[in-house]
Hints:
Blueprint: H1 2-27, H2 30-47, H3 57-76, H4 86-95, H5 98-111, H6 115-125, H7 130-137, H8 141-164
Helix pairs in contact: 1-2, 1-3, 1-5, 1-6, 2-3, 3-7, 5-8, 6-8
Amino acid sequence: MANKEAAFKQIYEANSKKIFHLCYGYTGDDDAANDLLQETFLKVWQNLEKFRNQAMISTWIYRIAVNTCLTYLRSEKRQAKDELTPQIAETKREELSDKNEQVALLYKSISKLEESERIIITMVLDEVPYPEIAEISGISEGNLRVKIYRIKQKLTELYNQYERL
């Protein structure tokens, strides 16, 4: 048992930031992202013995996180949060530095992408290697590169729209 705990701790430390970013990309909400992060790693803990090393463990964890996020969105019938009232949004904007504001705009833009696009671009931002992204998303590496290019174009358009507001 102690061995499992040590292995789990190492896995959590190596992957939790990336998984949080993925969850945040789906929800746009710190609390919901933290809940989904915890739920993901609870499933990792419960199924650690079942992991067969056929893929990288980070790939396996991403799949669990993606499924956890999709289940959350379906069950809650939620979309990424952009229902902030203008007053709250303005107050929030004043609190953020320019860089944080750019990051917030980026995540807001990401939240407008389709689910599959959100998964892919979040992994790109987390510097997951393309072969691993291809395996997680189930598409060839060549198609992945084309898809990433298109997602970046779409994201740039969305970001620029927000920046003009």
